[in-house]
Write a structure and sequence with these properties.
Distance between the termini: 14 Å
Helix content: 25-40%
CATH architecture: 3-Layer(aba) Sandwich
Structural class: alpha/beta
Number of helices: 6
Largest sheet: 7 strands, mixed
CATH topology: Rossmann fold
Number of domains: 1
Low-confidence stretches: none
Mean pLDDT: 95
Radius of gyration: 16 Å
Strand content: 25-35%
CATH class: Alpha Beta
Amino acid sequence: MTKPRVVVLDYGSGNVHSVAKALQVAGAEVQLTADRSAALAADGLVVPGVGAFAAVMEQLKAVRGGDLIDQRLTASRPVLGICVGLQVMFANGVEHGIETEGLGQWPGTVGLLQAPVLPHIGWNKVEAASGSKLFEGIEDQRFYFVHSYGVTNWELDVQPPFIAPQVTWAEYGQKFVAAVENGPLTATQFHPEKSGQAGIQLLTNWIGSL
């Protein structure tokens, strides 16, 4: 049986090699590249993100990542964002009082979490969305987070006959978006590649949907 082909978008963000390795373990044929043709042709595209919102947006703009993601989603071709790769899918991010425009796939603002200690580093449980395919079989597992910023309000209101996104939440000081499943666009605030067997199963679930 042919393995699904997944491109990890290599646009300058860190942590790409561990993401690629985890995807291979989860059953994908993985290519680490910024080549547009390869990224458009792949069964799945992964957009990792490490560091500041503004810096990741600058790096994505340099490789026209926003256009690439738009083209894939318009054609209903799956995209998975990880950590800041989730955050940049929202309309904007505010860090140190500076607002940066995001990719705008979802309305909402990424802001500093209101918590006693930041960054939020370590394992945390999630409240998986009802009927989630991404969390199937791992609804009660913990996942590994490293972040100080997040989305605390879900603002996209979808009415029938359209299908509403499935939003998974976690809590650290306050509730924040831990994952979103929205048609071909999926994203996690946590790092599945650092989340042990639960993270591998989550990636396996995503790869199985390609």
